[in-house]
């Protein structure tokens, strides 16, 4: 039997519509959510993502600022831009697009974003809040994954969730969120032995390793929900996930496609975080 395809693109569109409507109501009370995105350099993929964020902000009715800075921007100059945005009352969320040019320390820049404006949820304080279960803005891709699992009708409580990948921006936070949802969580990584045997026990399998089609059907338990975070550009120009979608389609119970799965949820969750930050600041 073929897996249910989890349509992230459609779900993200539904969430964006909910945000747009809520924003309309907030604006009647004089509250206009504002997002500032900072892009350093000319990475083509980053330029597309930032353009999409700007366009989505406009669709939501948000105040939107994009600061496009040249490749040779120094760390001090970038920190000064972030400091200005921290003080700017029209800006409720600040996002510095990653990756940054090599001469800038990402950590120093992320640490400089005020925690209440950290709509990426990458700062140490946001990460700490996530781990101890305190209220904070959640990292967008992991939050989007949880939303997809929920909307696929799966409750993670009591399920075995296996996360393949241990990055700070996806693997570790999504594992924490699954734990918060009462799943039993295993994290696999490049040094894991017998990964296939572990992954194939998962009721929920999340893959975020950045290797096209690395995870085939032998890693998937029949009926499992498979969430593919990879967005890899092939030489053919086509996009592929980290999961071999065609091979896993008749093993999984539900699966996200690439494109059109997790990716679109990232921007929808960014909008949701910006709205949350604006509401918090207004005390509503
Ligand atoms: N500061 C941040 N930088 C980066 C993040 C992030 O969350 N915060 N994530 C990625 C890039 N990213 C958003 O910034 C992002 C990646 C992919 C998609 C997406 O919708 N992908 C589509 C395919 C798009 C295509 O055709 O290339 C899909 O999967 O359907 C959205 C946002 C790194 N940097």
Automatic annotation (TrEMBL):
Tetrahydrofolate dehydrogenase/cyclohydrolase catalytic domain location: 6-120
Top-level division of the source organism's lineage: Bacteria
InterPro entries: Aminoacid_DH-like_N_sf, NAD(P)-bd_dom_sf, THF_DH/CycHdrlase, THF_DH/CycHdrlase_cat_dom, THF_DH/CycHdrlase_CS, THF_DH/CycHdrlase_NAD-bd_dom
GO cellular component: cytosol
Name of one Pfam family that matches: THF_DHG_CYH_C
Keywords: Amino-acid biosynthesis, Histidine biosynthesis, Hydrolase, Methionine biosynthesis, Multifunctional enzyme, NADP, One-carbon metabolism, Oxidoreductase, Purine biosynthesis
Domain Tetrahydrofolate dehydrogenase/cyclohydrolase NAD(P)-binding as annotated: residue spans: 139-281
Stored CDD domains: NAD_bind_m-THF_DH_Cyclohyd
Pathway stated in the Swiss-Prot or TrEMBL entry: One-carbon metabolism; tetrahydrofolate interconversion
Any single GO BP term: L-histidine biosynthetic process
Gene Ontology MF annotations: methenyltetrahydrofolate cyclohydrolase activity; methylenetetrahydrofolate dehydrogenase (NADP+) activity
Catalytic function, reaction form: (6R)-5,10-methenyltetrahydrofolate + H2O = (6R)-10-formyltetrahydrofolate + H(+); (6R)-5,10-methylene-5,6,7,8-tetrahydrofolate + NADP(+) = (6R)-5,10-methenyltetrahydrofolate + NADPH
PROSITE patterns: THF_DHG_CYH_1 (PS00766), THF_DHG_CYH_2 (PS00767)
Binding site residues for NADP(+): 165-167, 231
Listed EC numbers: 1.5.1.5, 3.5.4.9
Assembly behavior: Homodimer.
Function as written in the Swiss-Prot or TrEMBL entry: Catalyzes the oxidation of 5,10-methylenetetrahydrofolate to 5,10-methenyltetrahydrofolate and then the hydrolysis of 5,10-methenyltetrahydrofolate to 10-formyltetrahydrofolate.
Protein's recorded name: Bifunctional protein FolD
């Amino acid at each position: 039997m073929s897996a249910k395809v989890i349509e992230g693109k459609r779900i993200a569109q539904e969430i964006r519509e909910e945000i747009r409507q809520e924003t309309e109501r907030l604006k009647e009370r004089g509250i206009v959510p504002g997002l500032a995105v900072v892009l350093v350099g000319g990475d083509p993929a980053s330029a597309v993502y930032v353009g999409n964020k700007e366009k989505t902000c406009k669709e939501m009715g948000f105040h939107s600022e994009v600061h496009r800075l040249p490749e040779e921007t120094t760390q001090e100059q970038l920190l000064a831009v972030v400091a200005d945005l921290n003080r700017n009352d029209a800006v409720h969320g600040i996002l510095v697009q990653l990756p940054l040019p090599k001469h800038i320390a990402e950590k120093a820049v992320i640490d400089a974003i005020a925690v209440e404006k950290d709509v990426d949820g990458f700062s140490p304080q946001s990460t700490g809040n996530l781990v101890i279960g305190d209220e904070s803005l959640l990292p967008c891709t992991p939050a989007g994954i949880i939303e997809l699992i929920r909307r696929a009708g799966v409750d993670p409580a009591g399920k075995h969730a296996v996360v393949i990948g241990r990055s700070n921006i996806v693997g570790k936070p999504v594992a924490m969120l699954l734990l918060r949802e009462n799943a039993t969580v295993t994290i696999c990584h490049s040094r894991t032995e017998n990964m296939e045997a572990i992954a194939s026990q998962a009721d929920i399998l999340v893959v975020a390793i950045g290797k096209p089609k690395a995870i085939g059907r032998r890693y998937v338990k029949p009926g499992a929900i498979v969430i593919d975070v990879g967005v890899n550009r092939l030489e053919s120009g086509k996009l592929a996930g980290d999961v071999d979608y065609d091979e896993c389609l008749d093993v999984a119970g539900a699966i996200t496609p690439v494109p059109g799965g997790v990716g679109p949820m990232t921007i929808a969750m960014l909008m949701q975080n910006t709205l949350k930050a604006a509401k918090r600041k207004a005390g509503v």
